[in-house]
Design brief:
Distance between the termini: 43 Å
Number of helices: 13
Oligomer: single chain
CATH topology of the largest domain: Rossmann fold
CATH class of the largest domain: Alpha Beta
CATH superfamily of the largest domain: NAD(P)-binding Rossmann-like Domain
Length: about 290
Protein backbone atom coordinates (compact mmCIF):
# COMPACT_ATOMS: atom_id res chain seq x y z
CA UNK A 1 0.00 0.00 0.00
CA UNK A 2 2.73 2.43 -0.87
CA UNK A 3 2.19 5.74 -2.61
CA UNK A 4 1.08 9.11 -1.32
CA UNK A 5 -2.54 10.15 -1.03
CA UNK A 6 -3.77 13.63 -0.27
CA UNK A 7 -7.03 12.43 1.32
CA UNK A 8 -8.14 9.20 2.97
CA UNK A 9 -11.63 8.47 4.33
CA UNK A 10 -12.09 5.63 6.83
CA UNK A 11 -15.32 3.64 7.01
CA UNK A 12 -15.65 4.42 3.31
CA UNK A 13 -18.18 1.68 2.56
CA UNK A 14 -20.45 2.92 5.36
CA UNK A 15 -23.26 5.42 4.92
CA UNK A 16 -21.40 8.57 5.97
CA UNK A 17 -18.02 7.51 4.60
CA UNK A 18 -19.39 6.70 1.15
CA UNK A 19 -21.08 10.11 0.98
CA UNK A 20 -17.84 11.80 2.09
CA UNK A 21 -16.01 10.11 -0.80
CA UNK A 22 -18.67 11.44 -3.20
CA UNK A 23 -18.39 14.92 -1.69
CA UNK A 24 -14.60 14.92 -2.11
CA UNK A 25 -14.89 13.79 -5.72
CA UNK A 26 -17.00 16.88 -6.49
CA UNK A 27 -13.96 19.11 -5.99
CA UNK A 28 -10.76 17.02 -6.17
CA UNK A 29 -9.45 14.43 -8.65
CA UNK A 30 -10.07 10.76 -7.83
CA UNK A 31 -6.31 10.16 -7.96
CA UNK A 32 -5.95 12.18 -4.73
CA UNK A 33 -8.67 10.29 -2.83
CA UNK A 34 -8.32 7.09 -0.82
CA UNK A 35 -10.97 4.93 0.79
CA UNK A 36 -10.33 2.68 3.78
CA UNK A 37 -12.57 -0.38 4.13
CA UNK A 38 -12.56 -3.25 6.60
CA UNK A 39 -13.11 -5.99 4.02
CA UNK A 40 -11.63 -6.33 0.55
CA UNK A 41 -15.02 -7.30 -0.90
CA UNK A 42 -16.28 -3.76 -0.16
CA UNK A 43 -13.68 -2.30 -2.54
CA UNK A 44 -15.33 -2.72 -5.96
CA UNK A 45 -17.95 0.10 -5.85
CA UNK A 46 -15.28 2.51 -4.59
CA UNK A 47 -12.67 1.43 -7.12
CA UNK A 48 -15.31 2.01 -9.83
CA UNK A 49 -15.20 5.69 -8.82
CA UNK A 50 -11.46 5.78 -9.46
CA UNK A 51 -10.34 6.12 -5.84
CA UNK A 52 -7.55 4.13 -4.22
CA UNK A 53 -8.87 1.51 -1.82
CA UNK A 54 -6.88 0.36 1.20
CA UNK A 55 -7.98 -2.40 3.57
CA UNK A 56 -7.63 -2.35 7.36
CA UNK A 57 -9.79 -2.82 10.43
CA UNK A 58 -9.79 -0.48 13.43
CA UNK A 59 -8.81 -3.55 15.47
CA UNK A 60 -5.54 -4.08 13.52
CA UNK A 61 -2.96 -1.38 14.39
CA UNK A 62 -0.28 -2.71 12.01
CA UNK A 63 -2.67 -2.80 9.03
CA UNK A 64 -3.88 0.71 9.91
CA UNK A 65 -0.35 2.07 9.95
CA UNK A 66 0.30 0.54 6.52
CA UNK A 67 -2.99 1.92 5.19
CA UNK A 68 -2.22 5.43 6.50
CA UNK A 69 1.26 5.54 4.92
CA UNK A 70 1.70 8.58 2.67
CA UNK A 71 -1.65 10.13 3.68
CA UNK A 72 -1.73 13.90 4.11
CA UNK A 73 -5.26 14.42 5.43
CA UNK A 74 -7.43 11.78 7.11
CA UNK A 75 -11.16 11.76 7.77
CA UNK A 76 -11.60 9.44 10.76
CA UNK A 77 -15.24 8.35 10.62
CA UNK A 78 -16.28 7.01 14.01
CA UNK A 79 -16.76 3.26 14.28
CA UNK A 80 -20.27 1.83 14.50
CA UNK A 81 -19.29 -0.65 17.21
CA UNK A 82 -20.59 1.11 20.33
CA UNK A 83 -18.61 -0.06 23.35
CA UNK A 84 -15.45 -0.78 21.36
CA UNK A 85 -15.03 2.61 19.74
CA UNK A 86 -12.67 4.34 22.17
CA UNK A 87 -10.09 1.56 21.79
CA UNK A 88 -10.61 1.29 18.02
CA UNK A 89 -10.22 5.04 17.52
CA UNK A 90 -7.11 5.05 19.73
CA UNK A 91 -5.62 2.41 17.41
CA UNK A 92 -6.38 4.62 14.40
CA UNK A 93 -4.94 7.74 16.03
CA UNK A 94 -1.72 5.93 17.05
CA UNK A 95 -1.40 4.53 13.52
CA UNK A 96 -1.96 8.00 12.00
CA UNK A 97 0.78 9.42 14.20
CA UNK A 98 3.18 6.59 13.38
CA UNK A 99 2.48 6.97 9.66
CA UNK A 100 3.08 10.73 9.75
CA UNK A 101 -0.45 11.81 8.73
CA UNK A 102 -0.56 15.60 8.49
CA UNK A 103 -4.14 16.30 9.61
CA UNK A 104 -7.02 14.31 11.12
CA UNK A 105 -10.70 15.33 11.14
CA UNK A 106 -12.79 13.16 13.48
CA UNK A 107 -16.59 12.72 13.38
CA UNK A 108 -17.73 13.22 16.98
CA UNK A 109 -21.18 14.08 18.38
CA UNK A 110 -22.93 17.41 18.94
CA UNK A 111 -21.94 19.09 22.24
CA UNK A 112 -19.83 16.01 23.11
CA UNK A 113 -18.30 17.52 26.25
CA UNK A 114 -21.54 18.88 27.77
CA UNK A 115 -24.30 16.75 26.27
CA UNK A 116 -27.28 15.55 28.33
CA UNK A 117 -27.05 12.25 26.41
CA UNK A 118 -25.22 9.74 28.61
CA UNK A 119 -24.50 6.71 26.39
CA UNK A 120 -23.16 8.00 23.05
CA UNK A 121 -20.88 10.92 24.01
CA UNK A 122 -18.51 9.00 26.33
CA UNK A 123 -16.49 7.25 23.64
CA UNK A 124 -16.43 10.41 21.52
CA UNK A 125 -15.04 12.43 24.44
CA UNK A 126 -12.42 9.74 25.05
CA UNK A 127 -11.44 9.91 21.36
CA UNK A 128 -11.30 13.72 21.44
CA UNK A 129 -8.96 13.49 24.45
CA UNK A 130 -6.78 10.89 22.69
CA UNK A 131 -6.50 13.20 19.67
CA UNK A 132 -5.62 16.19 21.85
CA UNK A 133 -2.85 14.19 23.54
CA UNK A 134 -1.52 12.74 20.28
CA UNK A 135 0.29 15.81 19.02
CA UNK A 136 -1.44 15.39 15.65
CA UNK A 137 -2.92 18.40 13.84
CA UNK A 138 -6.67 17.75 14.16
CA UNK A 139 -10.22 19.12 14.09
CA UNK A 140 -13.47 17.82 15.56
CA UNK A 141 -16.61 17.50 13.46
CA UNK A 142 -19.30 17.24 16.13
CA UNK A 143 -22.17 15.90 14.07
CA UNK A 144 -25.74 16.36 15.20
CA UNK A 145 -28.54 13.94 14.40
CA UNK A 146 -29.11 12.63 10.89
CA UNK A 147 -32.68 13.18 9.64
CA UNK A 148 -32.38 9.62 8.27
CA UNK A 149 -32.32 8.37 11.90
CA UNK A 150 -36.06 9.10 11.88
CA UNK A 151 -36.99 8.60 8.23
CA UNK A 152 -35.78 4.98 8.42
CA UNK A 153 -38.70 4.36 10.80
CA UNK A 154 -41.28 5.70 8.34
CA UNK A 155 -42.50 2.33 6.97
CA UNK A 156 -43.21 1.07 10.49
CA UNK A 157 -44.86 4.35 11.50
CA UNK A 158 -47.18 4.15 8.48
CA UNK A 159 -47.93 0.49 9.13
CA UNK A 160 -48.87 1.14 12.77
CA UNK A 161 -50.37 4.58 12.25
CA UNK A 162 -48.09 6.10 14.83
CA UNK A 163 -44.59 6.97 16.05
CA UNK A 164 -43.27 6.32 19.54
CA UNK A 165 -40.39 8.04 21.28
CA UNK A 166 -39.15 9.61 24.48
CA UNK A 167 -38.01 13.05 23.29
CA UNK A 168 -41.00 14.93 24.72
CA UNK A 169 -41.03 18.54 23.55
CA UNK A 170 -37.29 18.45 22.81
CA UNK A 171 -36.41 20.03 19.48
CA UNK A 172 -34.13 18.12 17.10
CA UNK A 173 -31.88 20.11 14.73
CA UNK A 174 -31.16 17.31 12.28
CA UNK A 175 -29.65 17.50 8.80
CA UNK A 176 -29.30 15.02 5.98
CA UNK A 177 -26.34 12.68 6.22
CA UNK A 178 -25.05 14.14 2.93
CA UNK A 179 -24.85 17.59 4.56
CA UNK A 180 -22.45 16.29 7.22
CA UNK A 181 -20.43 14.50 4.52
CA UNK A 182 -20.16 17.75 2.55
CA UNK A 183 -18.94 19.56 5.68
CA UNK A 184 -16.29 16.89 6.28
CA UNK A 185 -15.09 17.28 2.68
CA UNK A 186 -15.00 21.06 3.06
CA UNK A 187 -12.84 20.88 6.20
CA UNK A 188 -10.57 18.27 4.64
CA UNK A 189 -9.96 20.16 1.40
CA UNK A 190 -9.91 23.73 2.71
CA UNK A 191 -7.21 25.76 4.44
CA UNK A 192 -6.40 23.75 7.54
CA UNK A 193 -7.99 25.11 10.72
CA UNK A 194 -6.00 25.64 13.89
CA UNK A 195 -5.37 22.32 15.59
CA UNK A 196 -8.15 21.44 18.02
CA UNK A 197 -10.80 23.47 16.17
CA UNK A 198 -14.30 22.27 17.09
CA UNK A 199 -17.18 22.44 14.62
CA UNK A 200 -20.63 22.02 16.23
CA UNK A 201 -22.71 20.79 13.30
CA UNK A 202 -26.51 20.69 13.12
CA UNK A 203 -29.41 21.47 10.80
CA UNK A 204 -30.71 24.99 10.25
CA UNK A 205 -34.24 24.06 11.34
CA UNK A 206 -35.60 21.90 14.14
CA UNK A 207 -38.72 19.93 15.01
CA UNK A 208 -40.31 17.97 17.82
CA UNK A 209 -41.21 14.36 17.15
CA UNK A 210 -44.89 15.35 17.32
CA UNK A 211 -44.24 17.84 14.50
CA UNK A 212 -42.36 15.16 12.56
CA UNK A 213 -45.30 12.77 12.92
CA UNK A 214 -47.72 15.52 11.83
CA UNK A 215 -45.61 16.19 8.71
CA UNK A 216 -45.47 12.47 7.95
CA UNK A 217 -49.24 12.32 8.25
CA UNK A 218 -49.67 15.32 5.95
CA UNK A 219 -47.20 14.12 3.31
CA UNK A 220 -48.40 10.51 3.27
CA UNK A 221 -52.11 11.25 3.53
CA UNK A 222 -52.34 8.66 6.34
CA UNK A 223 -53.03 9.49 9.99
CA UNK A 224 -49.83 9.19 12.05
CA UNK A 225 -49.78 10.20 15.70
CA UNK A 226 -46.91 10.53 18.15
CA UNK A 227 -46.91 8.80 21.54
CA UNK A 228 -44.36 10.03 24.06
CA UNK A 229 -43.14 7.43 26.54
CA UNK A 230 -40.69 7.27 29.42
CA UNK A 231 -37.19 6.28 28.28
CA UNK A 232 -37.62 2.93 30.08
CA UNK A 233 -40.93 2.17 28.37
CA UNK A 234 -39.54 3.26 25.00
CA UNK A 235 -36.49 0.97 25.40
CA UNK A 236 -38.84 -1.87 26.35
CA UNK A 237 -40.99 -1.28 23.28
CA UNK A 238 -37.91 -1.32 21.03
CA UNK A 239 -36.70 -4.59 22.55
CA UNK A 240 -40.22 -5.96 22.01
CA UNK A 241 -39.93 -4.96 18.35
CA UNK A 242 -36.76 -7.04 18.04
CA UNK A 243 -33.95 -4.56 18.70
CA UNK A 244 -30.95 -5.73 20.76
CA UNK A 245 -31.17 -4.36 24.32
CA UNK A 246 -27.95 -2.27 24.14
CA UNK A 247 -29.14 -0.54 20.97
CA UNK A 248 -32.60 0.04 22.44
CA UNK A 249 -31.07 1.56 25.58
CA UNK A 250 -28.80 3.81 23.51
CA UNK A 251 -31.75 5.06 21.42
CA UNK A 252 -33.88 5.65 24.53
CA UNK A 253 -31.02 7.54 26.18
CA UNK A 254 -30.58 9.67 23.05
CA UNK A 255 -34.29 10.56 23.10
CA UNK A 256 -34.13 11.39 26.81
CA UNK A 257 -31.14 13.63 26.02
CA UNK A 258 -33.09 15.21 23.16
CA UNK A 259 -35.88 16.08 25.62
CA UNK A 260 -33.25 18.17 27.47
CA UNK A 261 -31.99 19.96 24.36
CA UNK A 262 -29.14 17.58 23.57
CA UNK A 263 -29.95 17.39 19.84
CA UNK A 264 -30.91 21.06 19.41
CA UNK A 265 -28.56 23.75 18.09
CA UNK A 266 -28.88 27.11 16.38
CA UNK A 267 -25.16 27.31 15.72
CA UNK A 268 -25.33 27.56 11.91
CA UNK A 269 -21.79 26.25 11.40
CA UNK A 270 -22.93 23.39 9.17
CA UNK A 271 -24.61 25.59 6.57
CA UNK A 272 -21.66 28.02 6.67
CA UNK A 273 -19.21 25.18 5.98
CA UNK A 274 -21.19 23.76 3.07
CA UNK A 275 -22.03 27.17 1.62
CA UNK A 276 -25.78 26.55 1.44
CA UNK A 277 -28.73 25.92 3.77
CA UNK A 278 -28.88 22.43 5.24
CA UNK A 279 -31.33 20.02 3.59
CA UNK A 280 -34.80 20.73 5.05
CA UNK A 281 -35.97 17.79 7.15
CA UNK A 282 -39.33 17.76 5.35
CA UNK A 283 -37.45 17.27 2.08
CA UNK A 284 -35.62 14.20 3.46
CA UNK A 285 -38.94 12.91 4.79
CA UNK A 286 -40.61 13.47 1.40
CA UNK A 287 -37.77 11.61 -0.33
CA UNK A 288 -38.13 8.70 2.11
CA UNK A 289 -41.81 8.43 1.20
Amino acid sequence: MSGSLKYLVTGASGQLGALAIDALLETVPASEVGALVRRAEAAAPLEAKGVTVRVASYDDPAALETAFAGVERLLLVSSSEVGQRAAQHANAIAAAKAAGVGFVAYTSILKADNSPLTVLPGEHVATEQTLAASGLHYALLRNGWYTENYTMGVPMALEHGGMIGAAGEGRISSAARADYAAAAAAVLTGDLPASGTVYELAGDTSYTLAEFAAALSELSGKPVGYTNMSPEAFAGALVGAGLPAPLAEMLADSEAGASQGGLFSEDGTLSRLIGRPTTPWRETLKAAL
